[in-house]
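Predict structure. Input: Rhamnogalacturonase A/B/Epimerase-like pectate lyase domain-containing protein, 772 residues.
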Amino acid sequence: MAPTLLLLAYGLLASAPLALALGSACSTPISGGTAAAGDPFWMQNIDHQGTSAFNPDPSTYQVFRNVKDFGATGNGVTDDTDAINSAISSGSRCGDATCSSSTVTPAVVFFPQGTYLVSSPIIAYYYTQLIGDARVPPTIRASSSFSGMAVIDADPYIPNGYGAEWYNSTNNFYRSVRNFVIDVTEMSATSSATGLHWQVSQGTSLYNLVVEMSTASNTAHQGIFMENGSGGFMGDLVFNGGKYGIWVGNQQFTVRNVTFNNANTAVYMDWNWGWTFQDITINNCQIGFDVRTGGLSESEQSAGAVAIIDATVSNTPVFVQTTEASTSLAGSLVLNNCQLTDVPTAVGVANGDVVLAGGTTTIASWGQGNVYSGTNNGHTFVQGNIAAPTKPGSLLSNGRIFGRTRPQYENYAVSQFVSVKSEGAKGDGHTDDTAALQSTLNKYSGCNIIFFDAGTYLITSTLTIPAGTQMIGEAWTVIMGSGSAFADQSNPTVMVEVGESGSSGILEISDILFVTQGPTPGAIVVEWNVNSPSQGGAGMWDTHFRLGGADGTNLQTAQCPHGSDSNSCFAAFLALHLTSGSNAYLEGTWVWLADHDLDNASQDQLTIFSGRGILSQSAGPVWMIGTAEHHTLYQYNLAGAQNHYMGLIQTETPYYQPSPAPPSPFSIESSYSDPSFPSGQTAAWALYVQTSTDILVFGAGHYSFFQNYAQTCLSSNSCQEQIVSVDSSSSLSIYSLSTIGSTYQLSVNGAGVISQSSNVDGLQSTVTVWTQ
Ligand SMILES: *[C@@H]1O[C@H](CO)[C@@H](O)[C@H](O)[C@H]1NC(C)=O
Ligand SMILES: *[C@@H]1O[C@H](CO)[C@@H](O)[C@H](O)[C@H]1NC(C)=O
Ligand SMILES: *[C@@H]1O[C@H](CO)[C@@H](O)[C@H](O)[C@H]1NC(C)=O
Ligand SMILES: *[C@@H]1O[C@H](CO)[C@@H](O)[C@H](O)[C@H]1NC(C)=O
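Output follows.
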């Protein structure tokens, strides 16, 4: 045993420097963190040079805030609530119900090691990252007299506001909370103590949190309360105790690597259009998932689609409980690779009926709902075993879908980081930073962690991130392409090249935002070429695309109000291209063409154009735990792709279509494997799959809410005819597919197969499984 393990370990260590050497020219390849045992997290002491380029006063606006500089003590005794909240709110930020969204007041609010006592909610303003020391995560402790909705509140209700809140829950973007222990155990067990009120949408993440709650049998505590919203990603979370580990209701979400210990109910699912849970551990609870089901229409919307892959459940009487017995589709369930130990009921109904007996066993592939295959438009309602997906070995680790937490470099010393500002980049949104960034990357990639201080870095030609690069931003550092290089849609040009073509090595990007300054009809925003020899070694975490809709982009209400059809309103040719030799781990990647202006209080709709969302030609492995919205031809296009795990993928069709209908204002480019549009198909494809093999889609929400900005098509689900197309030379399986507004949910070779009217399950229609 031991020699094998050593060899394996050696192999992993040896592969990194080799890979780095291929990609970069620096002299001393980085080979691990050198922080001393007692050092704080690098983020505390690195030079804080981040700025907000488009803030009215960038020279005084403070992006990085250490709560101790605002008077917080972290001594566990003093009430730190006011100090923390002033660290968050200072600098005319976006909140207090007077501002619905803004991109010009970003903040990182850092908590050094310690215990912070609070007596009322910490309010997470728009565009805020709350970050604890990742080496020893600080504790935020609610005092016994705590009063308010939750220890951390991302969307406060306005007192006496008749339900009004600070932010619109479906437009509540750009938040992250990570590296904390949230402790509510000093509050009375019967109080409704809550860790986080996380009513958010896209571009949001929770990472590396532990919520400690009462384990008394009458506990009323809950780890998360989320009553509505859109979005989003959360992962690497532990919930101990509580009546509910998490109480959640929201359009769609992806949850990965979450553990629930000693809760009454681990997950209460109030409503959804589709949620994917991946790698879930449940120990010593009464109920694992309590899912409110039964609503077949929008007015009685309940949990429409729950998909659980790779779960370990022990010593828990019921794994999944639905509120109503299902004899027809009313709450689609998919359970894949769920290992039960001492779980008498695998699936049951609140009235005590057992749908699937448990015990100590593994549920390989089980479903409740409508099952389809091939081009057969008829379905079977199933409560039983369903076809198991093909899971290529390259996507798995120990038999489960591989997952990798975001790199935070917590063991690296400050001296191991290189700041792009210290190396001469300005990040002011005006200076051309192409040369400064390129020389910094060339000089330090593979030898240092590249720190992109907060700011907007303008580039005017292709920036190449060499294989071997590990880079991290601050409050979503913006890399913005601009100018004539990206002006010609007949000659598209890459804005950011991730690894040169054919390159091999690791590559890590987190906390970055890719943006264009319009018009940029010829921009391929990111071309991903890198191939990592180690599993999941090349990836993006909490890194998003935001095309238009923000100050500095010239693609805002002033230039491109809703209904405009102007050549100045092109945002991109293609957002993200995974090329054939690449592999990629993408987690929390929102590839958004803005549908409204985040920096205009009216939040009016925009008309701007991005040709294509995500094109993957990769042979894999590729993990996509992300979303793409509003691109003209398609949101996801898999062309000759192999070995992909995709869950949950969420998309929306552009609101202006069919005027014009796709491909207009772009044209079909066969060199980019563009899809075709059969007659009647006058809107973008959400997912288009051509000659691709071993593709596993586990949770998809594809929505079409408008026709030329009007919503009258919605009630008849006729906003577009088709939305997902698979060709007959591909091999893939799709579980938990929900659509809204499309007549057909799935087509084969461009002809509709699955009609939404057979699968109505709330506002959305849900297909539990379709296999080729
Ligand atoms: C919230 O935003 C959505 C999407 O933009 C919009 O349809 C809805 O009307 C907004 N809700 C409120 C209460 O403003
Ligand atoms: C959000 O959820 C609350 C509680 O269920 C509900 O009262 C409210 O109407 C919801 N708001 C929206 C905009 O869906
Ligand atoms: C899962 O989360 C825990 C923290 O809760 C973390 O230690 C572990 O590395 C994570 N595992 C994966 C595969 O991300
Ligand atoms: C904000 O939007 C409103 C309504 O569309 C528009 O009249 C106004 O000019 C916009 N403001 C700016 C600064 O563009």
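The pocket of 2-acetamido-2-deoxy-beta-D-glucopyranose (ligand 1) is lined by residues 168, 170-171 (CB under 6 Å).
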